[in-house]
Design goal:
Number of strands: 6
Number of helices: 1
Helix content: under 10%
Strand content: 35-45%
Bound molecules: zinc ion
Shape: globular
Structural class: mainly beta
Radius of gyration: 14 Å
Length: 91
C-alpha cells in the first residue's frame, strides 16, 4: 500500500504510522467523564470505507486524514488533518 502525502507525494507505507479512526471528536471540557472515556477508548471497527488518521513520521511529520476501504486498502482521499498545515498545500 502506498499513500500520496499532500506535502511529499507518493510514499511507501513504512514511512507512515497508523493512528486509527479519525471520526471521534474531542468532547467539550464540561462533557463529563463518560464522554471522555468514549472519546479516548471506544472506536468502531469498520469493514469498508473509513476515515483514518495517519502520521507521516518518515517524511514531513504531518498528521493526515486518509479515506481508505479497510477491505481492499483502496485509498480515495488524503488530506492534512485539522491543524496540520492545510493552508500550506499548494502554496
Ligand atoms: Zn508527508
Amino acid at each position: 500500500m502506498r499513500i500520496v502525502c499532500p506535502f511529499c507525494g507518493e510514499r511507501e507505507l513504512g514511512e507512515f504510522t497508523y493512528l486509527g479512526d479519525a471520526k471521534p471528536q474531542r468532547p467539550a471540557a464540561d462533557a463529563g467523564e463518560d464522554a471522555v472515556y468514549d472519546y479516548v477508548y471506544l472506536r468502531d471497527n469498520i469493514a469498508g470505507v473509513m476515515s483514518e488518521h495517519w502520521y507521516h513520521g518518515g517524511g514531513c511529520r504531518a498528521w493526515l486524514k486518509v479515506t481508505r476501504n479497510t477491505l481492499t486498502h483502496e485509498i480515495t482521499a488524503v488530506e492534512p488533518a485539522a491543524g496540520a498545515g492545510a493552508a500550506k498545500v499548494g502554496a
